[in-house]
Automatic annotation (TrEMBL):
Organism lineage string: Bacteria, Pseudomonadati, Bacteroidota, Cytophagia, Cytophagales
Protein name per Swiss-Prot or TrEMBL: LysM domain-containing protein
Domain (LysM) ranges: 403-446, 516-560, 582-625
GO biological process: peptidoglycan metabolic process
Superkingdom: Bacteria
CDD domains xrefs: LysM, MltD-like
Compositionally biased tracts (Polar residues): 476-501
GO MF, one example: lytic endotransglycosylase activity
Family: Belongs to the transglycosylase Slt family.
Gene3D superfamilies: 1.10.530.10, LysM domain
Length: 627
């Protein structure tokens, strides 16, 4: 369940301001969502020249002199009569806000009603005033971002038959920031916890987090909202339960005997009471910000762009990929916030990458060259080639593994949670607990993040071919005739063999499983022996006919299997066949594209000659090329 993320609230004193009237509410405090922490901009005064309407009351108040008019200087823009200068409490940016009477605001809100009721009451008024007079810069920033993200939201709202006004939920959850992370580790535009994201099909690993993927997380969020609506048959209750959880809303319904949201309002958890009023206030301000003198900075406004989706495999340097496609890397990041790093590792498969259509046309025309040149990672050690055993290539992923704990005498939830580094609320949710009461012997489930070895479908060739032939003693100078045999050294300099002795026949290495023996020493057990030789206790017991892992003794001789490399000689085409080869040693910065261009071959030919299944190469690798 997407948690109390950015909607956890801070208590701040609230000052209600309207034209000619400053009323301070000392009994009620305003709770502020954490989502409003969006960063700081340089101070500047935003002024307006006109607004669509101003109530008669506010005009009379301005004329009476209760609200002082700002002096008009020659070097400043005209300030709307009756506007009030305010300073954003987070960013210290100054605004001139045009007030409106409660009657005008109520009439405007009534006109916004679609499928969800939008009453204008004291709770909604509190947050309309709060965003206008305390957080106008947040409203401005949302205006600058909504054009980019709202078309995506509207697409999935229509797909799932959800009211269009539900798109304003993302303003509360994350401030329209796909990279937002809450204190509870909820992530993304819609603030999914990792277990909920995985439940709704979002992939999370060391290089990608689809909770940040704008389209996929939006689709998952609206599927979750649809599920909540099916339980309550009420969009306001679904909205509240998105924030606090359906369990709390059900308990409020049972306690009050009511099913209307506003009748339930005082029974809902205090942290959630502000959620629906804030949502309604932002709905209003996204539609009527100009009437209050708040405008976006059009130089900072994000606009939609036409894009294409690619499915690419690693290894891939994303910075190089962007440069080769004449694409600004910041734009690539904006379109792909789900990519956590600047590189995709060698084991990454079918990763979705979105690029602008104009750049996509260039990419399609130069696909082979771009992908080959962008496959060189800045840190070769992260390449999958460095991680290989007898079962194949592998990588490590961090996963939440389920464990169990049996409650002991003196235990309580806080103590257990601290021991395993989890939250009490998490323990209760994982085990379906409604209270903190636990009993001795009770079995509690908890999740722990662990590093797991994952074998990949991707495999490099396991052959390394070295070809060498002896040169005739009367070899002519290279300028007169091309030698049939060349061996490329570490610096890729063609060296001619002058030895009359025949060179070693071409060969390759093949892996072979063999049996070895180990004599048990004092203090050893099957587990330590298995780890030492990269096998398992089960395999050791089976190979040595051991019935019990505890029944071994010092000096006992154990068999274990291991993999060794064996040299196998090849059959190589003879000189008479006209097929001679060069052995090239890959250097830093090399790609198959660069090598193919230097040697007059195609990438496909090189891969075929060497039995390669991908464009990945590594420093020191020897590649056979046609001479």
């Amino acid at each position: 369940m997407p948690k109390l993320s950015f909607s956890k609230l801070l208590i701040v004193p609230f000052l209600f301001v309207s034209a000619g009237l400053i009323a301070q509410d000392s009994n009620n405090n305003v709770k502020e969502v954490e989502a409003l922490v969006i960063g700081k901009n340089p101070q500047r005064i935003v002024t307006v020249q006109k607004a669509d309407s101003l109530s008669d009351d506010s005009q009379k108040t301005a004329a009476s002199g209760i609200v002082k008019k700002q002096p008009i200087r020659k070097d400043s823009a005209v300030i709307f009569p009756g506007s009030i200068e305010v300073t954003d409490i987070r960013d210290n940016v100054k605004f001139h806000i045009i007030p409106a009477s409660d009657e005008v605001i109520e009439q405007r809100i009534r006109g916004l009603e679609n499928q969800m009721p939008m009453p204008y009451n004291e709770h909604v008024k509190k947050y309309v005033d709060y965003f206008l007079y305390k957080r106008p810069n947040f409203v401005k920033q949302m205006l600058e971002r909504k054009e980019f993200y709202f078309p995506v939201f509207e697409k999935y709202l229509a797909k799932h038959n959800i009211p269009d006004e539900m798109k304003y939920l993302a303003l509360l959850e994350s401030g329209l920031n796909p990279n937002a992370v809450s204190r509870a580790k909820a992530v993304g535009m819609w603030q999914f916890m990792s277990y909920t994201g995985k439940e709704y099909g979002l992939k999370i690993n060391d290089y990608m987090d689809e909770r940040r993927h704008v389209e996929k997380s939006t689709d998952a969020s609206f599927r979750y909202l649809t599920k909540l609506y099916s339980w309550f048959d009420d969009w306001e209750l679904a909205l509240a339960s998105y924030n606090t959880g359906p369990g709390r809303i059900r308990r409020a319904i049972r306690k009050s005997g009511k099913t209307d949201y506003w009748a339930l309002h005082n029974y809902i958890h205090p942290d959630t009471r502000a959620y629906v009023p804030q949502w309604e206030a932002l709905n209003y301000l996204m539609n009527y910000s100009a009437e209050h003198g708040i405008y976006p900075d059009y130089a900072k406004t994000l606009y939609p762009m036409e894009t294409e989706n690619l499915l690419l495999d690693g290894p891939l340097n994303l910075v190089t990929f962007a440069q080769l496609n004449y694409l600004d890397f910041e734009t690539l990041q904006l379109l792909n916030p789900h990519l956590l790093k600047h590189e995709l590792p060698g084991y990454a498969k079918n990763v979705e990458i979105k690029i602008p259509t104009l750049n996509y046309v260039y990419f399609e025309n130069n696909r082979e060259c771009v992908l080959d040149s962008a496959c060189v990672l800045s840190s070769p050690s992260t390449d999958v080639i460095a991680l290989e055993d007898d079962k194949g290539h592998y990588h490590f992923e961090y996963k939440d593994i389920k464990h169990y704990y049996s409650v002991r005498s003196g235990d309580y939830l806080g103590k257990i949670a601290e021991r395993y580094g989890v939250g009490v609320s998490d323990l209760k949710r994982w085990n379906g607990l409604r209270s903190n009461t636990i009993m001795k012997g009770q079995r509690l489930a908890y999740y722990k993040r662990e590093s797991i070895k994952v074998y990949d479908a991707y495999h490099e060739t396991k052959k390394e071919t070295v070809v060498a032939k002896a040169e005739p003693k009367n070899t002519k100078p290279a300028t007169e005739t091309r030698s049939n045999v060349k061996v490329t050294g570490e610096k890729n300099t063609a060296l001619e063999s002058t030895s009359s002795a025949p060179a070693e026949r071409p060969f390759h290495y093949e892996k072979k499983t063999v049996v070895r023996y180990h004599s048990i020493r004092n203090g050893e057990n099957l587990t330590t022996i298995a780890r030492k030789y990269g096998t398992s206790v089960k395999d050791l017991m089976k190979l040595n006919n051991i019935a019990s892992a505890n029944k071994i003794m010092r000096g006992q001789r154990l068999k274990y299997e291991t993999t060794v490399s064996e040299k196998v000689y090849d059959k190589v085409a003879s000189e008479e066949d006209g097929n001679t080869f060069i052995v090239y040693t890959v250097q830093s910065g090399d790609t198959l594209w660069n090598i193919s261009q230097r040697h007059g071959l195609t990438i496909s030919e090189i891969k075929k000659i060497n039995g390669m299944t991908s464009n990945s190469i590594h420093v020191g690798q020897k590649i056979k090329l046609k001479g």
